[in-house]
Amino acid sequence: RGNEYVTNTAAHTTILPFSRFMIGAADYTFCYKDPDNTFLPSMPVTKGHQLAISVAFFSPVQSIMWYGLPEYYTDSIDVEFFKFLPTTWNDSRFLDGRIGKYVVFARRYDEKWFWSFYTSEKRSLIQEYNFLDKEYLYRRICYFDENGKIKKTIDTVSSYSAVLVSAEKNDGCACILSKTDNTETPPVISFHSVRDTISIDDSVVYRVTIQSHSKFLCFSSLKIFFSEKFPLLSIKLMHSDSFNVEDVKEVKENESYIYTLISDSLKCTTDSVFSLTLCVKSDCISNFAIDSVYLNGNKVRHDYTVPYVSNANFVKNRWDNNTFRVYPTIIFNGILNLEFKNSSEYVISIYDNTGNKVLSKTINNASGKNGKETINISFLKKGLYLIKIDGYPVCKKFIVQ
């Protein structure tokens, strides 16, 4: 039965996608309150809920505003969403939900995606947009109910985005995601060993950085697929400069080579960089390899380093005074990061693959940067480069893409 017969709550409408709509289209008439609430005053669901079910329920011949006349709706934004709502779809995705609790649905018509969420009780969730085209940015218009009136917000998202969404009891919201002409530059994840040389019995501490060209970067989930040939014994999240590690769950997969981190709440940063530290234990660390990495449910580019493994115990502290770290080793965004131990003044020199010096810079590590330096190398052409710091007996290499 639709709203012309009964005023169903969301406890009922959150069951229908798992029952009547499982095998295709079905008839469910939903009514839409007018500003003066002249009909169905006892309807418990909000307008935001009605917008959401117009996407989740597939009924090409459904009628909206069953009892409403056009002159009832004096605020154009109340019915704006319906002007864009198609009657048929090219693609449909059930994204999340529980029977009788909540439903999250997305459908596509041509180049536009329509996303909806509604719930029978007050709820917040993190939505990952990994179903969008990876190469483009999308203009997102979100329609939601605020004190009986429809409001909207407009922003930009991509397939790598994650957004926090909230709704009250018997409430919901709906969004239109339109592809723009602007392309998206995918984030890059780098895994770099803290020490260049380790003992054969050591665990390896990896510094993980997630970098993006977006104005801000959001973290919802991270899944790492290690090579099946790499005997991963254990892995543990030790530290993060970007968020409290207690807010992140480590998910144990059936396959020992898969490691997943899921955030309990959406983490965002305005400097477009996340960093965390992982401790990896293996009986053959020299075979360390990562097959693929997924950020917020979307596959992203990655690079990693493998430390030299030695039986000698004295090499454990070799990094402390005699070497420095460079990351990422494959650079897409023109930013090179350095870390070193000693606090003094140094001269950094960068050479191209022909031996020509392309950059010379003096830094003072005692100036409060805690052994960290960021260098803008966006002017360098693509290719292989060497970096040398006076006072250190080693050189490091990196690639500009």
Describe, in plain words, how this protein is organized in 3D:
- The protein is mainly beta.
- It has 3 domains: 10-183, TIM Barrel (Alpha-Beta Barrel); 185-319, Immunoglobulin-like, CATH 2.60.40.290; 323-401, Sandwich (Immunoglobulin-like).
- Helix content is 7%, strand content 48%.
- The protein has helices at residues 10-13, 47-56, 76-84, 319-322, and strands spanning 91-98, 102-109, 112-119, 123-128, 136-146, 149-157, 162-167, 171-183, 188-193, 197-199, 204-211, 217-226, 232-240, 248-252, 258-269, 273-282, 290-295, 298-304, 308-310, 325-327, 330-331, 335-339, 345-352, 357-364, 372-376, 383-389, 395-400.
- The chain has a 9-stranded mixed beta sheet, with no helix packed on it. The chain has a 6-stranded antiparallel beta sheet with strand order 1-2-3-8-5-6, covered by helices on one side. Strands 21-27-26-23-24 form a 5-stranded mixed beta sheet, with no helix packed on it.
- The protein is elongated.
- The termini are far apart.
- Residues 312-320 have low confidence and may be disordered.
CATH architecture of the largest domain: Alpha-Beta Barrel
**What percent strand?**
over 45%
Name the average pLDDT. 83
**Alpha-carbon distance between the two ends:** 59 Å
User: Would you tell me the structural class of the helices and strands?
Assistant: mainly beta
**CATH top level class name of the largest domain:** Alpha Beta
Q: Fraction of residues in helices?
A: under 10%
The counted number of beta strands is 27
Gross morphology: elongated
